[in-house]
Amino acid sequence: MNELKNIIYNCRKATFLIEKKQITALTLREKVELRIHLTGCSFCRLFQKQSIGINKMVHELFHSAVHKDIRLDDDYKKKLQERIEEQLDKN
Amino acid sequence: MSIHKSTETPQAEAIAIDPHHWVENHADYLYKYAVTRINDEELARDLVQETFLAALERIDKFEGRSSERTWLTSILKNKVIDVYRKKSSGPGKNTIDLNTVQQDQDFFDANDGHWSKAHQPRAFGIEDKDPLMNKELNAILKRCMEKLPALWLSVFTMKHMDDESTDLICAELKVTPSNFWVIIHRAKLNLRACLQKNWI
Predict the structure, then answer these.
(1) What residues does the RNA polymerase sigma-70 region domain cover (chain B) (predicted)?
(2) Across B44-48, B64-68, B100-104, which has the greatest mean pLDDT?
(3) For A7, B21, B40, B105, which has the most beta carbons within 10 A of its beta carbon?
(4) Which three-class secondary structure state does DSSP give residue A49?
């Protein structure tokens, strides 16, 4: 019972579990603990929402870049291909 | 892209390798891959070049089981991880001194683990709306990420950008599993706080 009490008041642990949950499965015990904590803690509920949002944003940061027009300049590319040809000739 | 009408050997199964068109076909893609992960244009350019040269050296090892681009990307990926490793290694950097971290970022009350007053999360507009489309917010997020210690950023990026496995991250960056979780947790606490501070 004491341990349950611990999690009810422990936002440090709850936020840790929120992060863990997004990466791997929680144990049954952890799931129960987190659920109990979130029921009573609006700060951590808010944290969870924001945390999930941030992960999405970070993911998107990269995946949207795929469609962006980031390019090497042509000069550099030309030199790069020349170096490759050089190497190919050597072999 | 490159169609050679002269060589009419229709062998679709084996994937051909064609260094004469590497730059044309893959350089921009590889550059984009590198620059989004390490945020350093010059270094990213160097890595692309190194990737091509390394690939040439082991061209006989290419088995055609994956596409040319996938193969080149995997070589580049290892080089990016090397950069992470170099940035984040060094005496003491792979272990987190929890005391110092807690001193300047006391998110929680030391006694009961509750949010400290100053650090309680507040709503700042990313909770319900879809934050993904907001350019300004993205720029702030980037800056906040750059403020993280190098090792944290490496761990965080590999996990949340590239969905790498926890085992691989721990092995490559030489962090223990328990430190991994501490880093993931701390990185997010800091990032969230930074966003709240700079967005409101």
Answers:
(1) 23-88
(2) B44-48
(3) A7
(4) helix
Shared domain check, B194 and B162: yes
What is the phi/psi pair of residue B115, to 5°?
Answer: -50, 135
Same domain, B70 and B96: no
pTM of the predicted model, to two decimals? 0.79
Domain boundary among B89, B119, B151: B89
Domain boundary pick from B89, B124, B148:
B89
Q: How confident is the model at residue A7 (pLDDT cuts 50, 70, 90)?
A: low
Which helix (H) or strand (E) segment holds residue B5: the answer is: none
- Taking residue B151's Cβ as centre, other Cβ atoms within 10 Å add up to 24
> What is the residue whose two structure tokens read 């690939």?
B55
- Cβ of A50 within 8 Å of Cβ of B145? The answer is no
Q: How far is CA B174 from the centre of its chain?
A: 16
Check which CATH number belongs to the domain holding B37 and give it: 1.10.1740
Given the cut 0.90, state whether the ipTM is greater than it: no
| Contact indicator for B169, B158 with CB cutoff of 8 Å | yes
- Is B106 an interface residue toward A (CB < 8 Å)? no
Q: Provide the shortest C-alpha distance from residue A77 to chain B (in Å).
A: 6
